[in-house]
Design brief:
The chain is mainly α. The chain is about 30% helix and about 0% strand.
């Protein structure tokens, strides 16, 4: 006969875990996923390194705004 464990399993606590609004790391420049759209570009590993060194997506948005003077907002 199998011996039963003396430990009991607790049901999950309500309100804990899972997806929650405003959870997670915040963007350094204030941009959130809800504020924008995702674009994709295929680059070499060296280009990716330079892109990240320049500031990543915040740098890209600044360059687009600078070049077009925010005329598309």
């Amino acid at each position: 006969m199998a011996k039963e464990s003396s430990k009991t399993v607790k049901p999950p606590s309500p309100g804990r875990g899972g997806r929650r609004e405003n959870a997670g790391r915040k963007a350094q420049d204030g941009m959130t996923r809800a504020d924008g759209v995702m674009i994709t570009a295929l680059v070499t590993p060296a280009q990716r390194g330079r892109y990240l060194a320049l500031g990543g997506s915040a740098w890209l948005r600044a360059m687009i705004d600078r070049e077009f003077g925010k005329q598309f907002d």
